[in-house]
Design goal:
By secondary structure, the protein is α+β, with helices and mostly antiparallel strands. The protein is built from ten helices and 35 strands. Strand 9, helix 6 and strand 10 form a beta-alpha-beta unit. Helix 5 packs parallel to helix 6. It is globular, with a radius of gyration of 28 Å.
Amino acid sequence: MKISPKSKQCIVLGIVLFVLIRLYDIQYEGRKPMFIVDYKNNTFLKDETTFNFVSGSLHYFRVPHQLWLDRLQKLRASGINVVSTYVAWNIHEPQKGDFNFDGDADLIKFLKIAQSVGLLVNIRPGPYICSEWDLGGLPYFVLGTPNNPIKLRTMDLRYLKHVDDYFAKLLPMLLPYLYENGGPIILVQVENEYGSYQACNQEYMNYLTNTMRTYLGDKVVLYTADGWDMHHLICGPVHTKDVLTTVNFGPNSDHRSAFSRLRAFQKHGPLVNSEFYPGWLDHWGEPHQCKSPEVVGDKFGDMLNSNMGNIYINFYMFFGGTNFGFYNGANMLREPLYQPDPTSYDYDAPLTECGDFTDKYFAIRNNIVKYRPELVDADLVPNSAKLSNSIKKRFGKVFFQEVLPFTNIKELATKAIQNSPMLLAFEDLQQDFGFILYEQSFAQPQKDNLYINGIRDMVYVYADDVFIGKIYRHSDQKNITLPPFKKLSLLVENMGRINYGKYMHDFKGILGDVKINNELISSRSSLWNIWTLPLNNTQKAKFSKLSSQPGTGSLLKGSFNINGAVADTWIKIENFNKGVVFINGRNIGRYWPAVGPQKNLYVPSVWLQEGLNEIILFEVGGMPQSYNDLSIELVDYPDVGACRQKV
């Protein structure tokens, strides 16, 4: 068979092409993936090629693990190609040496899912993370005790021992998931916003850097993130070339000014905004914070199209989620202005608390399509059959029919201390969250003025098991008038440890004096009896049928049936004052509709079940006066509060 000249040319061309491809393969065979900072050209290199990214923050610990895939796919569908997450130490080591990396704490599963949907990962392991999370993610035991405090985020050897033990567990788990080892992690943060902390200790930051290098190697890209004023940039960064300095600022700041300030401290390297705020955090008793989609979208677009060159941006938060349980943090800018965060961490983020799309989401996506089209995954389309808003249902009213009265609440105690000469704090008793009940009995009736100082954070006062009132840490009023009584009960709630600033050494309980008519109670009474009530065992409570109006401090139990498929729902608690609610054994979080802004609590569908569902409510602020008001309603809409004027 004769071969035409044209066919010969095709064969030769094919052979040459094959040889060239093989030579390329041989040249790069065995090369590991690589992600580095190109300081000379102010960019990142991924596998020797200039790499652009837009990142979004999504915390695995603020959403049930069954929903990680949904939230990560929606994040990727926006055009974002990197997910940023903190690592919350206190969910992984709730008690010293007791590690948990399962279920909603399965960090490795989260990393694998992120990689499967085409996301790289920016991981922020702390040890401190802020994040409006209890104690900034630090476990309570690193505080020490009120009489023997540990200096947080310093070279205090006791603190470093806790950090070393934790990092010895965590960092080796992360090593296989670094990009250079075939995983998704491209960036690792050292500490967090250290420039905002009064310690300003470079030795400490160098210590953390060296520890991370020891476990993760010399090639991983480490960075710091701080505000952009002078003090933050003096105290926050690690002033060595192998740790990148980045800054945080929102749409109200001018990016040119912020990055020009950064250049005074770091002459070269990529310009990174590690926390660009599309929304903001909330506090109980204050309006819900919002930012307009137009402002966020316009400022984002300005940075993508800036004449300063490539700018790398991480949205904090892209999906906020929920402070389930007792994990919410708090702020305090000055005494006594204690500002606890609500259960919702919606953050006015581009994806809502239940994972729904918003106008802000599409304003961001439109800018990515316009300025970074190469980042968009055409197979992931928002508001499609694959990626849609959550299914929501209204399940109606639930009436409470069973009760565990305040007089029986000690059944749920995990520790009982008899005849203590002093009021022991949560940390003294190795208790992380929940409540503590302090009790005194008197031989002769007492009355008149009760004074309590050093309240952390709310004390509910009972005289002979009758609720009298409450005293709040936030208030200047520390007195309450009592009728004659022979037994004094003080139920103290830990409402969330301060997670930011100089007041972080936030021990819980009663840290000051208890006086009656200006006389120390210890001088006229017996010793204290103390019960710890973390409320992690409410399903074991021995409820009885509700036959009369319950008193404040009681647990109420009800149930509801779901016929058919489960769906997202919200607990509307308008008849009650303040407390905690549980569904099917899960601590959904705190409610406080009397002060807001949040009115309804989010219940994800994956925590419900077809058939019978159980709800338990612990009301501490003041029980409804009417028997007919002992109910909540399961509705199909959120209510995180009306927005403060959008900016």
